[in-house]
Amino acid sequence: MKAIRRSPRTSPAPSRAGGTAGGGFSVRSVRFTGQTIDGERSLTNVIAQRPGSTNATPIVILAHRDAAARGARAELSGTAALLELAHVFAGRETKRTIILVSSSGGQRR
User: What's this model's pTM, rounded to 2 decimal places?
Assistant: First the structure.
């Protein structure tokens, strides 16, 4: 989520552990070990959250980061969509909290 567009008045880009990005999003990464088609791997999910003006149920949008492998047709297209959504939501107040999740899956074949 580092590529979230920011104006000069916003907070600095997030660190590896987490931080704030433009448009009111707070960003953090979650590292864990998971079983993949190639065995156990270290995986990282990146989560950006922007609070809404009410306590209504949040909207969660998830995109999987595809591996750049033979046969992959849309590698990182989900990440591009999340970045565009972050840009759109950054310019608007929302009633519901927005949570954008970029998920790794360790696909390597």
Answer: 0.70
